[in-house]
Amino acid sequence: MSSLSDKVAMRHMDVYMEQEEKYTEAVMSGTERLQSKLQSEMASRLAFELSTPPLRWGPWLYYRRIEEGKQYPVLCRRLASLNEEFISHKSPSAGFDFTSGKRIEQKLLDYNLEAERFGGYAYEELSEVSPDHRFLAYTMYDKDNDYFKLSVRNLNSGSLCSKPQAERVSNLAWAKDGQALLYVLTDNNKRPYRIYCSMIGSTDEDVLLLEESDDNVHVNIRHTKDFRFVTVNTFSITSSKVFVINAADPLSGMTLVWECEGLSHCIVEHHQGCLYLFTDAAKQGQSVDYHYLLRSPVDASSSPRKWENVFSDDQDLIIEDVDFSDTHLVLITREGRKFRICSISLPLPVRKGAVHLKELNPYFLPLPEHVSQISPGPNYDYYSSTMRFTISSPVMPDAVVDYDLLNRKWNIIQQQNFLHERTRILYGTASAASIVESNSNSKNSNYKNNVLVDDHHMWNELSEFYACEYYDVFSYDGVVVPLTIVYSRKNKKENQHPGLLHVHGAYGELLDKRWRRVEVVGVKSGIMMADVQGSRILFKIISPVRNSLLRKGSSKITSLLVGDIVLVDFWLLQP
């Protein structure tokens, strides 16, 4: 298929999949009754309507939900101030339900209808609501042509705008308080290279703002969180540049604010007259393997622009990500294996030079034990004091958590619902009578700075049944490698022969250590799950302990071998 064009290849794939489906139907024809029974049983265990946790932006709550019997979700919103007075409704898409006496949520975009527009397939890459909440710009994949098509929908009328309707769109950003939309087009090789500006409601042709002629340079745009600027990134393997466009006047031109050698990650934000740059660009010609934060006044007149470090270098503290609101700077940090979230009041003090993080009196938000990953949510609302994060752990299902930065309260908004009674009986040793569930997930942290909350029931953890332990082991070439091991507590055996685990993995791969229901079933059955992560060696181990175990138990050295991990005089899981 490599010699065929993309369009022909896609058609061949469609024909092949159709033949595969017909074959499957023929082979499984004798199991229709069993399939129906299994489907009914699974359906009875699922909610009729699945929904993402509502996200507040301005006066609205935005969310996506899947209606019963439908394949694709529906993007909806309802007024936050009247949330309890709204209901979900299949039809109409807005209005009032006289039976229940409640308002009907507003359906902004039904992806099932979009699938009809795009040949039965609906895949959205980009979706941006305008800052005035009047328009929705989004791109849908056209599989027949193998590109993403831009559409803009009027959220008041529900109708599509006549323009812009562009093809091969890779990026978009709102400007001029929702009156203008900037978007990026790709060439035939899918390289982003042109930026256009379209005035919503205008019949004028879209204006070309930039065309990058160098085939090695790619273009990317985004708006700052406060919608004051649109940032333009141009980058190649040899250089990276960042320009800013005044969002109030997108046709006024671009200003260069950052330039460096090599390919680097550069995100620019704005807060009260200062530009902030989060980057991993080389320092003094030396490449770095971490990100750092810089700032510079918007009205800086020097050329080139001078940037100053916000934080002094700390080898033990890694800044994984940053987010801004009108009142706080929020950092996701990592010290060794320990992940944290801290908030710092804004604006930052006006002082010369970088400071240590502790000098800014950071407040560390409460977290469970054994956090393996923290992912920031969309957090569109710049003026909100609430920020959303997804907290991941090897011994806890992912938790979507809202933190209120002003009153320091937190609330678990969404988490996989197979915990507590049923889970503790199935996966643990506790009886149903011994389980006492909390009435509410909403907690006042009462949090002492620099101390993590350690309440397993509060966080719906299952660490009472599954242990998560950390070790530093030496590879065959002397590199110290951090090792994370998860195992079932009831299968732990003390003072037994060492176990031999076979290692599977790849170099340079970032492994996912989040909770996995399938893997946990294996752990309960006596399978050890481990993760080896280092600068040179990166493995994931999910393997039962073999019967052919090492017989010598005198050595107390834990060593990492090529292809195997030997745990000596530690513990042994029963297969």
From TrEMBL:
Q: Which Pfam families match?
A: Peptidase_S9_N (PF02897)
Output the Gene Ontology terms for molecular function.
Answer: serine-type endopeptidase activity
* Segments forming domain Peptidase S9A N-terminal: 15-415
Record's InterPro entries? Pept_S9A_N, Serine_Peptidase_S9A
List the PANTHER family hit by this protein, alphabetically.
PROLYL ENDOPEPTIDASE-LIKE (PTHR11757:SF19), PROTEASE FAMILY S9A OLIGOPEPTIDASE (PTHR11757)
Q: Which family does it belong to?
A: Belongs to the peptidase S9A family.
Q: What is this protein called?
A: Peptidase S9A N-terminal domain-containing protein
